[in-house]
Amino acid sequence: MVKTALVIGGGHNGLMAAVTLRESGFNVTLIEARGKVGGMADTETIMGVKVSRASYVLGLMPKRFVDKFNIPVIRQDPFQVVYIDGRLIPFWRDRDKRVEALVKAGEVKFPEFEDKLLKFKELMESKFTFVNEPPSVSEIRDEAVKLGVEEFIEESCSRVLSEYLSPDLHYTFMYPGMENSPAYLIAYFYSPDWSFVKGGMGTVGDVMLKYALSIGVNIRLGVRVNGLEFKGDIVTGVATNVGVLKGDVIVSSVSPILLDQWIKGRGSGWRIPRPGWRKYNIVLKDYPRIPPELRPYAHSIIDTDAGELVIPSILDETRGGVVLEFMGDLGSLLDMMPDIREKALVIDELTPRDAEVTYNVPNGDVNHIPMRTPYVLNGRPGYRTQFLNLFQGSAGNYPGGQVTGVPGYNAAKLAAGAYSA
Description:
Elements: E1 4-8, H1 12-23, E2 27-32, E3 43-46, E4 49-52, H2 63-69, E5 73-74, E6 80-84, E7 87-91, H3 95-104, H4 110-127, H5 137-147, H6 151-154, H7 157-164, H8 170-173, H9 184-189, E8 196-197, H10 202-214, E9 218-221, E10 225-231, E11 234-240, E12 243-245, E13 249-252, H11 256-264, E14 279-284, E15 301-304, E16 307-310, E17 322-328, H12 330-336, H13 340-343, E18 344-350, H14 352-359, E19 390-392, H15 406-418
Parallel strand pairs: 1-2, 1-13, 2-9, 6-15, 13-19
Antiparallel strand pairs: 3-4, 5-8, 6-7, 10-11, 11-12, 14-17, 14-18, 15-16, 16-17
């Protein structure tokens, strides 16, 4: 008899899990509380213009997944530009060209830094990405020593960056709060593949949904989970607003914090503070006046003193208007481009509280659980739970946040192996 699988959550990890289980021979139903799939990879239409409301660039998803679902990426070049205190450094996709630009800007140790960084990143991708459980620091160190890149697992982000780069470039390679976390995180987030997605990030969910439907995944929207029913070490049902749903295998792609609440039937044991990020989606009647030296690179991801800025409509004609998306301090951005005030048709603000309500993410953390010590590597939840037929694979699980699909894939492969159809 063909076994059944129930996937909870229709974000990109949930869709990945559903597709993987279906291709492993299961009859799969995916349930999603919202009226559409995609989670925080979300395109919203504001005044007739498409914006990537939460996540806004794609760069960490393995190429095999991008190709599998035919995700229409727009590979802007340079992929990123640092524009801080009037200093402008382009990061070109071509490595030789990129290194030349950094050295010309005075970063003479960048070639050595990136060489080691990319070796470590390749190590992580080849041996420690598609796994059944999070690797330990010692496992990674043993392999890193063989390549001479152990500093990325032994040292902190701040120490490694201070060794190789000027202080004003440090936050190009790490987020605030990562300073004392292992430099592994520099390699995790750094990628010359950062790209826009045609039509906004919601396209990721759209094409994954199309693929899932084409192979027979059953998608049910508007289904909200209230809790789990279990007997001993088996989950016997998932209580929802439409009744109790069952599956031989259950994979949760929601935050581990939320799953913990369902298991315990009360407040979660996680005690994580709400982050302080702000995302602004600005629809304008015309493009703002960009500083002259920055204009040739306005189509790139722009790291500024104010925060990170993208103007995807320069390259994406499907947006339907002028779109500026920004993560950072709005006041500082307006100081840099003051005519935004007069040209803005609407300034949409997304806060952690908004994300918690809209996307059902406890604390509004885009990574579900912070990407910093102690929640990295095997400090991050794995894919198994205390129940034999319940698995989890979300941005809160190893290897971590951003739009990758890896946790959902790993959880589903593990579930499929444990409960062969």
